[in-house]
From TrEMBL:
Pfam families: Clp_N (PF02861). Keywords: Coiled coil, Repeat. Residues 155-302 form the Clp R domain. This is Clp R domain-containing protein. The lineage of its organism: Bacteria, Bacillati, Actinomycetota, Actinomycetes, Propionibacteriales. InterPro entries: Clp_N_dom_sf, Clp_R_N, CLPT1/2, Type_II_TA_Toxin. Residues 323-357 form a coiled coil.
């Protein structure tokens, strides 16, 4: 099942309320939206999930006066995303249900039963999904997301390797003839980057480019040949990944690197990228723990060098240049140490496979 994220809901609300994205964020209760979406992910079955979504949004009222209209629009989009159709006629029955939910006389169980009785499922094909995503992105969302990163203040905080991941993700999308860049393409960009902490952590779990591409094709399918010509917009989930990565980097007082982008992909476990990591590594939590362990280790090493230099009373440009020179050397040593660590781990594994105890 495909779930909506916070930015999906806000994009729908912006269309219904006829306002821009900044305005809808100011007018909405984001915490209430997140609580409702978290509840949806705990349910199983389309009707049950849609019932929790409808009842939750009507009761939480995150959108103010037009809340009911937005709630229905969000549910319709959620149902459509999962290749089904919800019949709303007669509308008086819908109004009655919404009145009872708002008054506390009905809940998600009644909403699910109502939706189940009016739900029509459609068979899913890769071409249908590709076309659906294309329409969804180009119908108002494409203008909002397309090339958001070029010239954006957030993008200026991306390191060169992180920018390269974005470029590689776009190339992977074109390679698969997809008309959007999602978290699955960002994951491919991270894997094909071929350097850095994020790539090594993924490789440790056997997450390789061929394996990821095979699962992308299995889950989504290939697009129509030539469909990806021209600019390719980012999905709301991809943009959410960028914003989460930016927040993680700011919390660490750093620029956004590939490792922060990987944290963003891991954070959205319902995205295709997160689903693929779960399939290949079995546990996104374990991948996250290993990634954060390496980040924290590197951070402590950098802080140690910075602290040593801070003890120098001479606050000159020479000291500034010396600091950056030493930090660059430290990063080179850390990179080489990680490569040696990986080689040692492979050697130990090889010895075990030949019934030799590496610790003897």
């Amino acid at each position: 099942m495909r779930y909506l994220g916070r930015y999906d809901v806000l994009a729908i609300a912006a269309r219904v309320l006829r306002c821009d994205s900044d305005d809808v964020v100011r007018r909405s209760n984001l915490d209430a939206i997140d609580r409702v979406l978290d509840g949806v992910r705990l349910t199983g079955g389309l009707a049950e999930s849609a019932g929790v979504l409808l009842a939750g949004l009507v009761r939480a009222r995150p959108f103010g006066g037009a809340n009911r209209v937005v709630a229905v629009a969000v549910v319709l989009q959620f149902v459509s995303l999962n290749r089904a159709e919800l019949q709303l006629e007669p509308v008086t029955d819908v109004d009655d249900l919404l009145d009872r939910i708002a008054a506390g006389d009905a809940g998600h169980t009644e909403a699910a039963a109502f939706i189940r009785s009016r739900l029509e499922h459609h068979p899913v094909t890769a071409e249908d999904l590709q076309e659906h995503l294309e329409i969804d992105l180009l119908d108002g969302l494409g203008d909002l997301l397309q090339d958001w990163w070029r010239g954006d203040p957030m993008y200026e905080k991306f390191t060169e390797p992180a920018r390269q991941v974005i470029v590689l993700a776009q190339e992977e999308a074109r390679r698969l003839d997809h008309v959007y860049v999602g978290t699955e393409h960002l994951l491919l960009g991270l894997v094909t980057l071929g350097q850095g902490v994020a790539t090594r952590v993924l490789a440790d779990f056997g997450i390789t480019a061929p394996a990821v591409r095979d699962l992308v094709v299995e889950i989504i399918g290939r697009g129509r040949s030539g469909a990806a010509a021209g600019a390719i917009p980012f999905t709301p989930r991809a943009k959410s990944t960028f914003e989460f990565a930016w927040g993680e980097a700011r919390a660490r007082d750093a620029d956004v690197g590939p490792e922060h982008l990987l944290l963003g992909v891991l954070h959205d476990g319902d995205g295709v990228g997160g689903q693929i990591i779960t399939k290949l590594a079995e546990s996104t939590d374990e991948v996250r723990r290993k990634l954060e362990k390496r980040l924290n280790w590197r951070r402590r090493s950098e802080d140690l060098v910075t602290g040593m230099l801070a003890e120098d009373p001479a606050n000159t440009w020479t000291t500034y240049g010396r600091r950056h020179h030493l930090l660059a050397e430290l990063n080179a040593v850390l990179e080489e140490n990680e490569r040696l660590h990986e080689q040692v781990a492979k050697l130990r594994d090889l010895l075990r496979r030949h019934d030799i105890d590496p610790d003897s």
